[in-house]
Amino acid sequence: MNEHAAVRPPAEIVLAFEPPFRVSATEVRPPDLEIEGPDGVRTLEPRVMKVLVALHRGLGAAVSRETLGLHCWGGRIVSEDALTRCIMQLRKALASDPGVALETIPTVGYRLQVNAAPSAAVGSPEAASKPRRVSWIAAATAVTVVTLGAAAWLWSQRPAGWTVVDFRPLTSERSFKTFPALSPDGRQVAYAFSESPAGERDIHLRAVAGGEPAPVTSGPADDFAPAWSADGARIAFLRWTADGTCTVMIAVVPRGGERRLADCRTSQSHPTWLDDRTVVIADTSPGRDQARLYAVDVETGAARALTTPPPNALGDAEPQVSPDRRRLAFRRSLLIGADEIVVLDLRSGRERSMTSDGWKAAGFVWAADSRQLFYASNRGGAFGLWRVDVRKPGESHRVSLGLGVTSFMRMSADPTGGIVVELSRPRSGLVGLSPSGEVRSRVVTESADWDTVEGPDGSLAHVSDRGGTADIWVTDPQGRATRVTTRIGSYTFNPSWSPDGQRVVFVAVQGRRADIFSARRDGSQLQQLTNDGHDKRMPAFDASGERVLYVERRGEDFRLMAVSPQGAAHPVPGGAGWRTLQRSGAGVLYGQRRGDDMVGALVDGAWRPLGPVRPSESWAPANDGIYILDPAARPSPMLWFQPWGGPRKRLRDPGPLAYRLQAAARPGVILNEYLTDSIDLGHIRLGPARDQGS
Predict the structure, then answer these.
(1) Would you call 444 helix, strand, or coil by DSSP?
(2) Is residue 18's pLDDT more than 70?
(3) What is the pTM of this model?
(4) How many domains does the chain have?
(5) Do residues 438 and 310 share a domain?
(6) Does 686 map to a domain?
């Protein structure tokens, strides 16, 4: 069972689990059945209170009679008289507050309207910028009133279990909306927008209550990873330009101008605001691959290091400051396929690992009490949502969801328990190309599939999540798929064929250790070839099929290693510094060395250079050269062949959805296509689970 199950409707409102909230000058306390307005405290009937809660959840939009029946009467048929009586009682209870109006929408339902907050002063930058584009933001402000006190009550209850108590999509148009970031008041969401999966992105704003999006940035650069300042007036984000320049930018929202904050070297620099004057990013230092966290002064641009990862870790990324600004959570990648979430105490400098078993940890968000973290992990099989109390590291509990098509790889939370997540249906194309670039075969899957390599008979070994976890699969030329591994670790990757096409070798991560495994193509005779746990990648049989070569990383040092089923692992002569490795159909070993974009071959223990490949390009070997794909080329990706002793040759265009090349045993190359046609955003609300443990 994976996360791509059907979305279930929200359950009936349970007043005992509803946090207090405020509408205009009236405080509403659902568990106590009380509202306190200008004329004092009034008690409501339970059904009337449920109607008020449901209308408040509507965030100023019309709530249909059917929705009220679902939320307030448990889906039972409700007479018009019963609903009308509740509305009349509610209007009477709210009559003393002039800032609240309960409107009837003919033939539809009802709407709770709340007076707008005071507008910005005339002459301020916000008031002067693009009034037509900010009208939807003003409308959202007028109908959405929440309190931090409500959030504190909700999170302070520390229930045994959590579940999704409400879900609704925020977007539905066919495009790609990623890197969501909720504003501090929960009323707006900023995100990266693109028309196509490989297109340049712009930062857009959208009201959580609904309405049309408004662009914050536009232009030829690739803008993504927005992060709100604590006052909600500015957004920090990353910008990549066509020449490979990375910059951390700051923009005044919605269209108040932008400026450069700092240069960066990695797309993992995703910013977060430590305070109104400090932005935290993850970045590498010159000449090093390992990323650490830096605090950058937004006034002077001065940077100081916040973390120092262990020498053998890949680095630190994805910083998230707690709501009380006292802690900083981040992801520390130990090796490919193994992560941990670490919390840094910003006063003492002490670090504590929240997870220590090595399972992948992707997106994560803080609860409003700054004591709990919700994070995405594959520790239970498919990626799901988990929580951990920062005072009890290592004690993680799964959150009950009942949601489908939900990715928690990137998410954002507001102070009221709302979380915005990405919604997608993964779809992949595994394409065999001839030496001229013409399509000779294509397999389309309703899953995410990658690391695809072709065997001698045309079968494809690849990684797929179609079974709920990232496992090795083999798909034969007729499209029949066989599962080779079943969750033997937190991650499996980089499959490669034996010369006879009967075995597959790959890397599996178990705990904090990565080792080389092999199995027959039907999944039998699983064998572990190494047992040292060092970071490994890209295994490949040699031409004889007797040895397996692979890349090993120790800190900043890379080298080629070899192992046989009967022997111990040992360094390969001439393999010092190799950071990538691929084998052609004829058994020629190609790769790149650290600090060099040149692709070369290992011939008789000596390095033989072939040609450079840019970091943004993908390459795969052939017997007489390498294929090169530029997925970022405009107007569409470009495919090239680099022969020995000659210039690149342009081949047939691979199509707009091509993103990666892999080796083929037969003449030609394997192309991976990203066929997902849309990524949307959804809003979920967490609450205590009933009748279940964590």
Answers:
(1) strand
(2) no
(3) 0.74
(4) 3
(5) no
(6) no
**Token digits of residue 641:** 């062949």
pLDDT at residue 403 in the model:
54
List beta partners, residue 225: none
Strands 513-520 and 503-510, by their bridges, are antiparallel
User: Residue type at 48?
Assistant: V
Rounded CA-CA distance 540/455 in Å is 12
Is 145 a domain residue? no
Q: Which 8-state DSSP code applies to residue 383?
A: -
- CA–CA separation, 19 vs 23, rounded Å? 13
CB atoms within 10 A of CB 330: 27
Given a cut of 50, whether residue 1 has pLDDT beyond it is no
- 615 touches 244 (CB < 8 A): yes
Same domain for 432 and 419: no
Contact 470, 450 (CB under 8 A): no
CA 300 from centroid of its chain's CA atoms: 31
Strands (DSSP E) found in 306-354: 315-321, 327-335, 338-345, 351-353
**What mean pLDDT, rounded, does the chain reach?**
84
Q: Are residues 255 and 318 in the same domain?
A: yes
3-class secondary structure, 349? coil
CATH code of 498's domain:
2.120.10.30
Residues 407 and 333 placed together within one structural domain of the fold: yes
Is 616 a domain residue? yes
SS3 content of the chain, % helix, strand, coil (to 5): 10, 45, 45
Confidence of residue 144 (pLDDT cuts 50, 70, 90): very low
Q: What's 542-595 look like in SS3?
A: CCCCCCEEEEEEECCEEEEEEECCCCCCEEEEEEECEEEEEECCCCCEEEEECC
* Tokens (6 digits) for 676: 């997902």
Which pLDDT does position 603 carry in this prediction? 83
Domain interval for residue 54:
15-114
Quick check: helix, strand or coil at residue 449? strand
pLDDT confidence of 383, banded at 50, 70, 90?
Answer: low
Is position 146 within any domain? no
Question: What letter would DSSP give residue 7?
Answer: P
Residue 508 phi, psi dihedral angles, 5° rounding:
-125, 140
Rounded Cα distance between 629 and 199, Å, is 16
Cα angle: 512, vertex 514, 518; to 5 degrees: 145
d(CA 533, CA 535): 7
Residues 6 or more apart whose CB falls under 8 angstroms from that of 243 comprise none
- 202-207 and 214-215: which strand pairing? antiparallel
> What is the residue whose two structure tokens read 């294509």?
442
Which of 350, 326, 330, 348 lies closest to 340 in space, CA to CA? 330
Task: Evaluate whether 424 touches 180 at the Cβ level (below 8 Å).
Answer: no
Check residue 125 and give its pLDDT: 33
CB count within 10 Å of CB 121 equals 8
Mean pLDDT of 23-32: 86
- CA gap 694, 682 in Å, rounded: 24
By residue count, the chain amounts to: 694
Q: Which pLDDT belongs to residue 16?
A: 65
